[in-house]
Request: fold
Amino acid sequence: MKNLLFILITLSAFSQKTPEDFGYKHLSFDYKKLKVDVLIQSKKGEENIQKPLFFWCQGSMPQPIIKYDENRLYGTLPFDVNDFLSDYHLVIIGKPGIPVISDVKNLKNNYQYLVDNDSVPRAYSDHNYLDYYVERNDFIIKKLLKEKWVSKNKLVLAGHSEGSTIAAKLATKNKKVTHLIYSGGNPYGRILSMIEEEVFKLKNYDIIDYWREVVINKNNLNYNGGDTYRATYDFSIPSADNLKKLKIPVLVTFGTKDWNAPFVNLFQIESIKLNSTNFTFIPYFDVEHNFFPVNEKREPNYEIYNWENVGKDWKNWLNKN
Reply:
């Protein structure tokens, strides 16, 4: 019986996929008593060739970086990585307390990694806020810049949605950053996008009462089925304040039907008024937060995928700047 159990455990272990199975270099660091998983994607055969980093700041939700099933690998990054691999090593960091890789059969709604009673791991809720991500990412960048395969003359930060807010603040903290791609963010904070969506969909302002609760409990990290109060508060602090401090080239990309769009327009008007010539804005017309086209009811058409075009625009901008 023991031999049979050993065989079953061994087979199960071999069936578990690893990041290396999908072509990633997997590094692990300890930061503030937590394990930090770092994945590096490089052009095949050029893993040790010195190139600059393209550092991707993840958006929201407790998802593993690598998601797969018996048939395929789910997209790790939304854009076509092949547009960047000749010139960069791509870097992405796992979420705190979330496994770096998972079969989708072990995930819940929206590919979230949830535990008992569909809650998130405590390590996730306790660290899912702006300053933790900024400080952790800064720590990892400094570690990676010591590697021989990393060029020191260029460092690109990119982030979409929540990741854009992280990238904007990180760019003010780490002076090695040379370029910032700020995509799908609200320069004036998450809560304003939430209000825009509620007004359109529900025709009310009930979310204002939620914001009052958030402000009162702005340091509360208790999980209640969504973001903690601290996460909502932190990501509602205007990243415009950080963006305005930057002198490096900054690319801002957004969908004109995103709830964020009016506030991106406001920031663009202000940047022109301030003669901030380091900003480039690229709007994508009639698409929502993730660049899917929408109808008059703001319903997305998921059959049309525009992310690859967005990524190509990023690469063209980097080539020109």
Residues 1-14 have pLDDT under 50 and may be disordered.
